[in-house]
Every structure is written in structure tokens, then in C-alpha cells.
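Per reviewer request, we include the raw input and output of the structure prediction for the construct analysed in the revised manuscript.
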Amino acid sequence: MMRCIHLYHEEKLLDASTRNIVVLHRPAQKIADLKRAIEESKYTGLTAKYFAEIASKINHESVLCVIAFIDEEDQSGVDFLRSFLEYDQHIQRILFVRNQPNIFPYILHAVNRAHVDYMVPLPVNAPDFPVLCRKIVRRYDKMTRALRKFTELASVTEELLAQNEKYKEDATSDPLTALLNRRSFDSMINRFWDRWLEKSVPFAMAILDLDHFKSVNDTYGHTAGDTVLSSVAAVLKNNQRTGIDFAFRYGGEEFVLISSTVGLQDMQKYVSRLLSIVRNLKIEAGDDVIQVTFSCGICHSEQASSVKDIIEKADRALYRAKDEGRNRICLAEV
């Protein structure tokens, strides 16, 4: 038996074999013959006078249709159908109508209130019920065909969006350290510079280079070298101030920090604290412990005339730190 897809629940369309419940409103009329016909048609017939009586026995995936009766004396079936409309609008609602002289206004009320899918005149021949069920399934299939197509497209679109996010992340992040990569740096340094020119928002930039990193790779292997890079990156990442500091893997054993709205001395204090944390790292490599330091050059936006200039001045300060013995921070010269 067929059933709707609720996109917001991400439910899948079920085939006919899973939709096996026919709900009968229990009015004054005798319904034993119809219930027997339902069960002989391999469906499960459930009866209830109110929706609340049956709510715990059904779910959105199980109900094929709901049947109610009306005549001039009893229109309670209309509210029963209405309850199922509110529960799941794709459950087919069938109204059995007794042929009476003044029944038309009641039929009109039922159509308006319960959005009836089928009206069947009484009496009903029991053998006709399987035919009716087949019609219900076909009608449902036609009714939901476009929805199924849309759901398939929505699923594909969602998958493409997820892939796009992954590609975007891959394009902007370094896979080893999970820091922003060189491409991200090139984009962001220009944005920081534009803000400095247009809105006078200052920033500082630091280039960090791990000391004697080549000897780590040569002595302990590249796996140990990767562990060192990841450990230092974790220090940078875990000590970023939200909205102020941005850490990048610049390439090889080089990292870059950009800090917004800070002065040169503030940046020096910040990087000094990072250097102190890195010095205290103890990275195991077999029986040995690798101790790490870095050299750093810092330049402030006030000291530079362009993006190229701030990078070059920070880089020259870095090389001065190396020349002076490594494991230290040097500031750019004006």
C-alpha cells in the first residue's frame, strides 16, 4: 500500500505491501460485513469512533485509507475523516453515503471539511472493496509521482550541497593540521588590508617557522614530523581569540597568524605566550621526546605600505630571529 513522503521527516515512500491498515469509523450502522471484506482482501481492519482511540495503533507508514459513513441522522464520520486529514493529508479518505432525499448538503459539508477523496453510495458489495483498494493505490501513485521526483531531486541536491561544503572545506583547510591553508591566507590578508585602508582597522601579522624541523624529519621520520606540525597547529588553534586571531599553515613548517585590532606590542605578547606553550610540548618519538621551538617575525599594518610589503617585512624579521639564534621573536623594522 502506498504512502506519502513527508520531506521534513525525510521519510521514504513505502510500497503497497507495507501499507496494510484500513480504518473504519464505527457509527451506528453495521460494519461487520465490510470489515470481513477488508480482512479477506489481506488488509487489517481497525475500527474506532474517535481518532484518539486508534492513534496509538497506527503510524504514518501503515494506513492505506480511512472509511466513514454519513446519513441524515449521523454526520460524525465527517469529523473522523477530518482528524485523519490533519494527521496525514495523503491518507485516502472515503465517504460512504446513504442515498437519502436531503443528503446533498451533508455531502457538501463533508467535502469542504474533510477533503474527501472518494464518495461511495450505499449499499456496498463486499467484493467491490478490493477493486476500490486498487484504485486508491493507483490514485495515490499518480498523486505523489511529482512529489517522489521532487524528493529524489531534493536528495540529490542535498548530497551535492554536502559535497560542495566538503570541497569548500578542502579548498580552504590544510588536511594535516586542520588550520586554514595558504589559499585562505592569500584571500584573508587582502581583506584585512582593505579594512585597514578603508576603515582604519589595524592588524598585525606573524610568520612562525619551526626551528630545526628538517632534522626532526631526518632523525625520527616524517610521521614524527607530521605529529610535530599537528601539535604546534593545535596550540595555535586552541589559543585563538574568537574574531581576533586567525591561524594558517603557510607551507612546510611555516605558520602565519593574523590578529585584528591589535597593536604591535600586543601581538608580540600574544606570540610570546604561544612560544612558551610550544616550548613546553613534549612530543614522543619512540623512546625519545622531541622538544619544539619556533622563530617568529611580526609586522603591523602601520609599518607597511601594501600586502606585499607587510609579508616581506614580517619575513625579514623572521630571518633576523633565525640569525640571532632562533627560538625567539623579532619585530619588523620601520
